[in-house]
Protein: Ribulose-phosphate 3-epimerase
Organism: Halarsenatibacter silvermanii
Amino acid sequence: MIITAKIAPSLLAADFSQLREQLQQIENADYLHLDVMDGSYVPNMTFGPVVIEDLRDFSELPFDTHLMIENPEDFIEDFAEAGSDIITFHEEAALHSHRVLQQIKNEGCRAGISLNPHTPLANIKYLMPELDMILIMSVNPGFGGQSFIPVMREKISAARDMIERHNSSAELAVDGGIKLDNVDEIVDAGADVIVAGSAIFGKENPAEAVSRFKNRV
């Protein structure tokens, strides 16, 4: 069986002084991964819907917006209107995850939940019918350039089994510490979407880096 995965460069690793040029260099990717951090849920801050709206004019890629923020329910409409195609939020950050998933879908976006390394898969068992994406964090969220946590391979495999048991069409994405030298095992474990930051934007030729990932998976 041939296993393929989508490649989603993470804008967190891009040169923010040249975002337009950086986006033009990764148009051969499948998604653009946008890490939104509020400095509260995670110890870092990035950008909000205004920046995403501006970027929308310079890329035709589907925007995969990853909300690492508290109270995501207060901002779903803003990020949808800014041009997001997929919106994921952290299970711990929302009081009523099912309601937030419905909010996202009502805005016409695909809905997903992100799980931190310590967050059990059991927490989303009863949300499976609503999920379009499950994002497994293979590092602790908040900073780029971290190393992949090896035990997350087990969690990726378990998430794949959960998706299949529920006959779900949800994509399984993995984010954190993914390089060319470990992407094979992550895809073999069941990942559908590979989020890579420094391994793409940290290279002299990001388009070539995307192609290398695509050839590998």
Remarks:
- The helical segments are 19-24, 49-56, 76-82, 97-106, 152-165, 183-189, 198-201, 206-216.
- The first helix runs from residue 19 to 24.
- Residues 80 and 107 are 6 Å apart (CA to CA).
